[in-house]
Fold:
Amino acid sequence: MKRSIVPSSLTLLSLLCGTALADDAQRCATLATTLPDVTLTQHQWIAAGQLPQANPGRAALTGAALSKAAMPAHCLVQGVIGARTGADGQPYGTHFELRLPSPWNGRFLFQGGGGMDGVVGQALGAIPFRGASALPALDRGYAVVATDSGHTGKDNSDASFGADQQARLDYAYAAIGTVTQQAKALILSYYGKAAQHSVFMGCSNGGRSALMAAQRYPTQFDGIIAGNPGLRLSRAAVAQAWDTQAFSRAAPRTAEGQPILAQALTQADQDLVAKAVLERCDALDGLKDGSIDAMSHCTFDPAQLTCKTGQTQGCLSQAKVDALHAVFNGVHDSHGQALYSDWPWDAGIASDGWRVWKLGKSTTGKADARNATLTPGSLGLYFMTPAKPDLDLAQVNFDQMVENTAQTAAINDAVATQYATFTRGGGKLLVVQGNSDPVFSANDLRRYWQRLTADNGGRAQTEQWARLFVVPGMTHCGEGPALDDFDPLTAMETWQDKQQAPARLEARGTAFPGRTRPLCAFPQEAHYQGQGDVFACQEP
Structure:
């Protein structure tokens, strides 16, 4: 008598999973689009276990840290929407990459870019802050899409697309709509059902795009995670020119008379200012520990560091003090009218993340600060109308900048406070900002949040669907003397699934090993409770 062999439950599960993956791979190979003007250029089944590829140049402007987690099995789809020849004779089209994991958790995530875009990043849905250690969205089971926002650049500092009208629109907001439509159609075709939740997550320009997703496409997303958003990107670009001029006036000169921008403030100068700011503000949160958590109470005047007669060490020259006043008080025209925002004083001024934008490290007259290298293209080619390809930052006339940038600002800047359709559909907005961000002022975002709150029924009403978290010491999309390892995506998932709005985000960071502290929902701030390392969120 033969004994029948009954497969174990584990064996059956393995067989079923293997069959399911084989079916998914077959569906991946045959996946097609029914939308016009779309070409799918690649279908590829990716087996589980492959690691993401490093792209440090792109991460520098998006904040996304390279994930060390192996990717799940998934279908990789790449394509282009609306391929055409532009007004400048160059080829255009909105390229995208969509990754469809097996298994799928029923969620969709649109991954924001950075800089001037122009590059399709790996669609992983990594948490867009450099210190983040939480799993990317793809590893959680999200379908993830990324795009170049309608143009192909040499890198994501290339603003030459600004010569084309449609490319300006695509970068400003339109690519969000076309890529979302295509991604959702492919998700429906591949899985046989639509996503239950749709989230847009990005930092820097990706953070601005996240706000635009809610403001321009309020029915398409029910979750927005906006990191260090350049909500008034056109005015921030003007401020970058202002800062470069201000520091150039204080910089030593080459033999040819060119300013050495990086030496307008030495690292010793930065350290001196940061130490003075900490001495004034560090203990305001109840504990002197290198972090200014009581951000709303921190005021500082660099004039106190001015060198006295005969003093050469441990002080700043009058020219350097003047430069700091000009920068931190913010760009204005010749009539004293503010064009962007002032900046908060924080310990992050001593960090590389602050220097790389405002000053750079070049020892020659050829500046390498991002303000000096990105702004001539972004301001001259994209924000200004008509475009000015040969813009010299030293010659920018700030009395003309509001008018010169008005047309692009109208389509680009994410300053709307009307979110009625978004909130009616259950939309949740979670914004994170570094208080020491040298690119987009945390003070500008705070003022926007006050307008948002006032225009939406007050704080109690607004906090039902919108939360802002300001990170002490953090520069642009991470780093600085800050706790920049936190997980806004899990907070969003909990908010969507359980209707529990996040009052705090638990944060860690390599700048303060062993420390865990809450990031508090604005306007609350973390305050020491008098024992151990216990901090609680309190009204300022």
Summary: The chain has three domains: 35-50+58-195, 198-231+415-540, 235-264+299-343+359-411.
